[in-house]
Amino acid sequence: MKVAVAGCCHGALDKMYETLELLQRRHNVRLDLLLCCGDFQAVRNEADLRCMAVPAKYRHMQTFYRYYSGEKKAPVLTVFIGGNHEASNHLQELPYGGWVAPNIYYLGYAGVVRFRGVRIGGISGIFKSHDYRKGHFECPPYNQQTIRSAYHVRNIEVFKLKQLKRPIDIFMSHDWPRSIYHYGNKKQLLKMKSFFRQEVESNTLGSPAASELLQHLKPTYWFSAHLHVKFAAFMQHETNSKEELPKATKFLALDKCLPHRDFLQIIDVEHDPNAGDSLEYDAEWIAILKATNSLVNVTQNSWNMPENNGLHAKWDYSVTEEAIKEVLEELNHDLKIPCNFTLTAACYDPSKPQKNMEPVHTINPQTTEFCAQFGLTDINDRIQQAKEESSGRGECEEEEEEEMDSTGSAEEPSEYNTDNSGLSSFNPDEIMLDEEGGDEDLSTCSVDPSPDHPPEFSTSFSDIRVMPDSMAVSSDDATDSNNEELDKSGGSRQGEERSPPERSLKRIGGDENGNSSIKKIKRRNQAIYAAEDEDKTD
Q1: N or C, which terminus of the chain has less Cβ within 10 Å?
Q2: Which portions of the chain have biased composition (kind: Polar residues) (predicted)?
Q3: Per-residue model confidence (pLDDT) at position 394
Q4: CB distance 52 to 91 below 8 Å
Q5: Which three-class secondary structure state does DSSP give residue 442?
């Protein structure tokens, strides 16, 4: 079947679907599925805009609301994960996944579904070490910290995914798995994104959690976005025994949405011709959700997942064939995901703007139904209960103050096989949303798999677009020309949570004498919170 994969959509659904239609006509093909790798921006109204972690100048309604209202319908089944520029209040309604509009499905914090026999998994958000071991405690209205921490990956989601035993065909993450750049044309990547050099050479670029999942799941395809550059890699996995067949993952990172043509790729994926055309639950994943339900945490206290260290009575939550069979029997062997989309918020009306609309914490009927069907904890209901209980004791304000003062530096190491040296890895929260040219012409650059890796990558990774066999990448780079505040401040690299003053984060990207290049620094994937007034949402 024909699967289209898109990078950061940034809410431009009309443009994305128009591009898909153009490709279908140009190549005389019919697309079966569209996958989006985060920064989807399912913004329904002005309140949703206030829950998106970007400065006010980037808060644009875009076109998702037309699909939410029913004015338009996605022309192809669309499955997406969350990134770090999202209407977090909207996606938070669906922690286990669900429909955000007819024919547009969100995978949740982490999830696995099936389509035509193809197993598709994903994890939403990006990795930040100081929030990794916390529960999902955030709820609107967010403060300046929780509006960001709400999209940070948590260890419980990684733990759940690591319980999967059956093969995964496609996996999506927003940020790149750390180390994946060593399996592609690293030289060309650094030519296009020279400001990555220090992190690539120190092996700290990207997500160690995603890297851990890549090594464990060994999917056939892995798609990412986030860094606004197209990059291909081929990773041959080590086998654990002589009997185990070798596995390899074809990795592709996509650029952001238009005007960059490289935000979208079309591939051929083997599927079950006898399978139906409906999106389906994955029985093993449902069984894992049931098995790990007791581990759900809605507090901001850091905690470890169970591991085989003598401190836990149980650490293996993978499921048996019997447990999977029970799920199938519960569903009467009908795995079709119900089309139970429900409006849970007022839709944006261009003729009646409501700039002062405030976000509210909403319990989505889809989640209520899902949890009731499978005996799971409704995370938002639990958060609401905890909020009500603590409000009487005045604990909410204390927790917010503690969150604002916390740097996470005193955390214990990750609980299982995550290389602790990478917990402070460079994984930018904020990627520039606008671009007005760059400081060098990279129109002829490409980032292909390294010649050191097997050539079958390019031949098996089918691309119906007119591109070189090695998946040459057009490199219209993501640039920010509206970053004057950073230039005035010396171009210091700012993360989502600001580091202590004595720790310099200036990027030295100049000549041998250490003279830095302002233009190079402007192109770094810096935080877009350079000024406090831009952080405010009122």
Answers
A1: C
A2: 415-427
A3: 61
A4: no
A5: coil
Read off the pLDDT of each residue in 260-273 and give the average, rounded to a whole number.
Answer: 84
- Of 199, 244, 225, nearest in space to 124 by CA: 225
Contact between residue 178 and residue 207 where contact means Cβ atoms under 8 Å apart: yes
CB 149 within 8 A of CB 138: yes
For position 308, what pLDDT does the model report?
A: 86
pTM of the model: 0.78
> What's the distance, Cα to Cα, between the start and end of the chain in Å?
47
Which of 488, 397, 437, 419 minimizes the C-alpha distance to 127? Answer: 419
Task: Answer whether 464's CB lies under 8 Å from 499's CB.
Answer: no
Give the integer Cα–Cα distance in Å for 215 and 326.
Answer: 29
Instruction: Give the list of residues 6+ apart from residue 5 with CB closer than 8 angstroms, or none.
Output: 34, 35, 36, 37, 223, 252, 254, 264, 265, 266, 267
Q: How far apart are CA 174 and CA 198, in angstroms?
A: 21
Spatial contact of 453 and 236, defined as CB atoms under 8 Å apart: yes
Asked if residue 176 has pLDDT above 80, the reply is yes
Q: Are 479 and 435 in contact (CB under 8 A)?
A: yes
Q: Position of tokens 């654990």?
A: 240
DSSP string, 286-338: HHHHHHTGGG---SS---PPP-SSSS-S-------HHHHHHHHHHTTT--BPP
Do residues 93 and 363 touch, judged by C-beta distance below 8 A? yes
**Residue whose C-alpha is closest to residue 62's, from 49, 74, 80, 75:** 49
pLDDT band at 259; cut points 50, 70, 90: low
Pairing type for strands 78-80 and 33-36 reads parallel
Q: What are the pLDDT digits (tens) for 125-136?
A: 999 999 999 999
- Burial class from Cβ neighbours inside 10 Å (0-12, 13-18, 19+) for residue 67 reads buried
- Confidence at residue 345, expressed as pLDDT on a 0 to 100 scale: 97
Computed from CA positions of residues 465, 470, 471, 477, in that sequence, does the dihedral angle turn out positive or negative?
Answer: negative
Tokens 């977090």, residue located: 88
Could you tell me the residue ranges of all domains in the chain? 2-391
Strand 110-115 versus strand 118-123 pairing type: antiparallel
Return the number of other C-beta atoms located less than 10 Å from residue 387's C-beta: 15
- For 482, phi then psi, to 5°, come to -105, 35
Q: What angle do CA 310, 316, 320 make, to 5 degrees?
A: 150
Q: How far, in Å, CA of 313 to CA of 301, rounded?
A: 21
